[in-house]
# Entry
Amino acid sequence: MISIDFILLVSTLMMFAGVYGFLTRKSTLAILLSIELMLNAANINFAVFNNLLFPNGHEGVFFAIFAIAIAAAESAIAIAIMINIYRQLQNISVDKLTKMKW
Amino acid sequence: MDYSQFLNMQAELSLLAVIVILFVADLFMCPDGKNGKGVYNTCLPVVLLTVHTLLNLCPLCHEAGEAFGGMYQHTPMMSIVKSILSIGTVITFLMAHKWLSREENLVKQGEFYLITLFTLLGMYFMISSGHFLMFFIGLETASIPMAATVAFDKNRYESAEASAKFILLALFSAALLLFGISLIYGVTGTLYFDGIGQAVSNCEGFNPVMLLGMLLFITGMGFKISLVPFHLWTADTYQGAPTVVTGYLSVISKGSAAFVLFTVLIKAFGAEGLVQAWDQAFLWIIIASITIANLFAIRQNNLKRFMAFSAISQAGYLVLGLMDGTAQGMTSLVFYLLVYMVANLGAFAVITVVEENTGGITIDSYNGLYKSNPKLSFLMTLCLFSLAGIPPFAGFFSKFFIFMAAFNAGWHWLVLIALINTVISLYYYLLIVKAMYIIPNDNPLPGFKVDCYSRTALFLCVAGVVFLGICGIAYNFIDGFAYGLDNVAKCCMDAVDCCCSQSCH
# Structure
């Protein structure tokens, strides 16, 4: 049986890999992938806590299922917005989204 | 299962009915865009939403209750906040009339009402949540369609850029929030707000994982309310979004999130030790929000961008109400929200009609507006005075109450800093008044006639600005339903007294 520490280590690493990717990637699609990584790190946490610490209920697992569904809706909207930007700029790099600043 | 618990969800169910009716009406009555004008245009949604608001305000639903085993909770205070939000949405719809009558928007006007009402439904569920799952679903229902309304001007590049910035940061903050909730679940083993509160006060000592979860939660909500370390999306999104949507974002979305933050903090994180932690966090967040936003607002020329920084600093004042989580703080927060809503939407209504009729959106273009549009300039001045907090208008009283709540909670020098910042904000609000009345300009924007829908919106806002300050009934009415940490503590004390006296007998 794997100890809970190792699983939490994996989820925390995933979370901060996602934060790092969000801050450094140039393509908005890569940024979206980083956000998925962060959301899934939280989902791992829910599943692990539910199975190993509080095995009497299903609260955490259900939360994870709902979170996955919401993440799918979010990426659908985000990709639609990226397509709209691509139509106007022929590019989806965040470097180009600089018309409005300060 | 007891179906009568659905009666507690009166507000949500009636809003859902409005949405379904509008959905069906959109199928049959939408103009085809080539030869047709809007058949029901603004009238039907406004009437339906007004009926919904009145139903919601009636005393029948002013009883506390819950549904689905405590996942959905209802208190009279929540139904007051929901009514405030839906009145704001009615005003937004009235403002939107001229913008939606443009040729390219005529076909999709039905979508605008539906998407906006879905975000409102999400906020209702978020406000009434008693469980983190309900809270998270409500939050996302409120923020995902919002990105679609920000991108509503499909062929305008600024709108697309604004929505990209909005959705990316909304997703990022949602991910942080989710991680925070998972940590809280790991510590306490439950996701009910009440259960978390009990679990934290039962366990001995100080739990750093719980603290991290709470801070991630505050971060996620800070993005929604656009408080300062998390405010960077605000100015760009507000500038690029359609003006009507900017008004909606700056008041309705922000106000609901602030109220929810208050209720969750007192319910789930009201334990000794945690209260001090979030007070300390909000102390610096408030100082930074008010000061930095004020300094940035001074150097803006685009009026929507200017209103964005003004909205960030107003959010700082709004959050001032939740220091220490007192009942007085809740009253002043809700009253501030009400007054801020009428004043800010009034200013946005003027900006919208000027933009739609003449295209002017910079502060420079308002030079000499007084000569061509004296009435509009006067209304704009009233709203700006109220936002700045000049005595006869409602803004003064709302600021006074919120300072009083923070002062009574013992945050004296924080109130002093907020007062100094009020003076700074007076300076930049008066810059616009100066542009309209004093700066000479031979070619001001041409005069025009305001359509009757925008006229109604302006009338409602100005009536609110003038009368909410003079008659104190509103404040007392809200005060009757407020609750906070001190109230809850008092109830517990009563219960303990009861137990003691029983055991004595």
In short: DSSP finds three helices and no strands in chain A.
